[in-house]
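Narrative of activities, Objective 1.

The group set out to show that a structural description can be obtained from nothing but a protein's sequence at a throughput compatible with the screening campaign. Below is one input-output pair from the validation batch, recorded exactly as produced.
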Amino acid sequence: MNCQNCPHLGQSLLGACQHNELSMISGSKLHQSYLKGQIIFQQGNRLGGLYCVRQGKVKISKVSTDGKEQIVRLAKEGDVLGYHALMTGSNATTVATALTDCVVCLVPRADFFSLIEQNSQFSHSLMRLLAKSLGEAEEKVLHTAYKPVRERLAEALLLLHELFQPPANTPFSIPISREDLAALAGTAKETTSRLLSEFREDGLVLTQGSRITVVDTARLAHISSMYD
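Output recorded for this entry:
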């Protein structure tokens, strides 16, 4: 499972690496399989390196002292995790959990910092990634503060639809629990279930157990942007 043959290299931060750097990483990285619901890294842990999602979907969340979860980001194949804690020298401030069965590679922290020092293209790509994540975090704070819950739920469904959409334009459903959907929208599970029922009655989504199919992305986009 080497980096050179990774199908997601082109959209990954590691796509900025030279061939010899990819060979170095392939020789030292670890890869681990996780079942849906398993923890990849825990809040408060010192991270051993940069995590790269090779297969599956991951949620990155914060858990308050009273156990309440807020999903701050979703990651898919090709995305990297843990770079903020590595750059600041701090322990992880979030927990990463497999939303689906996953395969995740771990690039040792020594190799990560070696790339920063030796590869300016990698450093620039990392800075752009940090700036992008900061902008997304600021936008999420504003949306949570000012957007009504109905609009936030529509936005969360569109985000999940984009995350799980297969390369081929084929029908698909989203495997997401009501708890996770509520944590992504920043509201209570009961509110999420009620609004999701309304969306289903309005023909915006279909539901079957824990799976959701988005039917009308245009109307959901209109609802999600009403307070922009």
